[in-house]
Amino acid sequence: SFLVKVLLIPPLQLDCCCRSNSTLQVIAKTSLRCFEPEESSVMLLAHIEGRIPCPGHACYNNTGVVWYKKNRLVSIARESCVEDGELHLCTVYREDTGVFYCDRRITEQGVAWVFRRAVHVKVIPFTEANSPPVVKYPAANMTEEVELGQPHNLSCEVDFDFEVNISRKVEWFMNYGGDMDNMTLVDTERHEEVFFSDIKVTQTYTIKEVTPQHLKHAYTCLAGNTVGNNNVTIKLKEKEQVIIFSTIVDNKMNCLVGVPIRNLGIILHVKWVELQLIFRSRFQFGKDDEEKEFDVFVSYVWTGPSAEAVEMQSREEPIEMRLTRVLEDQWGYRVCLLERDILPGGAYTNDVVLTINRSRMLICVLSAKYFASSNAVFVLESGVKALLQNSALKMLLIWTRGTSASFIQPEPPLPKLVQRALKVLPSLQWSTDAPSTTARSFWISLQKAMPADGARPASRVQ
């Protein structure tokens, strides 16, 4: 490493506009007496006097020291003086932060040199924090609203005093069941904004997917420095949509809420997604003018014996087989079955979405095997998403073999949207052990739920 030497021979002559000559030599740093690193820095407190030493000043017989900042003489730019080589600032200002240069005239081996050294100056308001951190957000004991199944960020915004020896810290803890003695540190991300006299820290804990379990816990933001600590604890609650129904509510709305509320004004606290599904699945707010290729798309997972076994044993025909036969042969609907009517070789997800868009209605025959099939669950979830986007689509769930929404606990768990939809979508219950009157009632209810136009005159289902 060189300061500037490898003696240039012949010496380089630099001609300036004034035609004065200077000799430039490059010399190794270690060849200098009192060798010091070229980097030098100093911290000065604002609003009092300060001194900036010139590095290596005592090593030579100096004939004078001149100080510069940004190529301007400090003695001209501001009130100052030089005492024994040090720059003495009568009052230090915030704007004094920057690089200062000291030029010294030294004599080495009979040659007069101008030797320049740089000093990095940083002006600080104080060396130690004067007060504990202040948590600006969240407020103590507040509650944040969240949506189940969605990500959520918990942010803690804290103001710290400036300090030289950094001691500030911000951490998020999860308190299981709200127990303050059962706290676990969670992973977070930090963002800092540094100002002259304070530092603003934002510490964020990201919940990738909010579950009902998160609503049972409390969350504590702890901030501290050498002076003291502060903490804030908050909880989460599910976001609710308040819908106000006033004046007269007709018979359809009575069926919707399940209680007689005619001529009453009520406030329903319901989840927004469920509310949308209830309205869109039970009321047609508009007609779909686009001609559909299919009247109904039937989705099921085969759970019964083979068709040949059914015929040989003369047993009751499984609903998966009988439903399609009744819809097509007796009622005249155009039915779509993925395994029968969709050409193989395409992407399954695209085929499902396109088939739903080409159908007026989606019927899902639900069973334990249906919920264990990821492909079948995808059909159901795609239908729910389509229903939320298209008020003309109809959906119907047919529960079989003793299954019901309250007993479905598949592994892995169903998507949150599907779990919500199972509770509110129109449904029918089918059982092979039901009396004939119950079976007849099932077919009558199914026929009423089907699209009104497009089918041939209905024949009686035996």
Automatic annotation (TrEMBL):
<protein>
    <recommendedName>
        <fullName>Interleukin 18 receptor accessory protein</fullName>
    </recommendedName>
</protein>
<dbReference type="GO" id="GO:0016020">
    <property type="term" value="C:membrane"/>
</dbReference>
<keyword id="KW-0393">Immunoglobulin domain</keyword>
<dbReference type="GO" id="GO:0042008">
    <property type="term" value="F:interleukin-18 receptor activity"/>
</dbReference>
<keyword id="KW-0378">Hydrolase</keyword>
<dbReference type="InterPro" id="IPR013783">
    <property type="entry name" value="Ig-like_fold"/>
</dbReference>
<dbReference type="InterPro" id="IPR000157">
    <property type="entry name" value="TIR_dom"/>
</dbReference>
<feature type="domain" description="Ig-like">
    <location>
        <begin position="132"/>
        <end position="233"/>
    </location>
</feature>
<feature type="domain" description="TIR">
    <location>
        <begin position="292"/>
        <end position="450"/>
    </location>
</feature>
<keyword id="KW-0812">Transmembrane</keyword>
<dbReference type="InterPro" id="IPR015621">
    <property type="entry name" value="IL-1_rcpt_fam"/>
</dbReference>
<keyword id="KW-1133">Transmembrane helix</keyword>
<dbReference type="InterPro" id="IPR007110">
    <property type="entry name" value="Ig-like_dom"/>
</dbReference>
<dbReference type="GO" id="GO:0016787">
    <property type="term" value="F:hydrolase activity"/>
</dbReference>
<dbReference type="InterPro" id="IPR036179">
    <property type="entry name" value="Ig-like_dom_sf"/>
</dbReference>
<keyword id="KW-0520">NAD</keyword>
<keyword id="KW-0325">Glycoprotein</keyword>
<dbReference type="InterPro" id="IPR003599">
    <property type="entry name" value="Ig_sub"/>
</dbReference>
<keyword id="KW-0675">Receptor</keyword>
<dbReference type="InterPro" id="IPR035897">
    <property type="entry name" value="Toll_tir_struct_dom_sf"/>
</dbReference>
<keyword id="KW-0472">Membrane</keyword>
<comment type="similarity">
    <text>Belongs to the interleukin-1 receptor family.</text>
</comment>
<keyword id="KW-1015">Disulfide bond</keyword>
<dbReference type="Pfam" id="PF01582">
    <property type="entry name" value="TIR"/>
</dbReference>
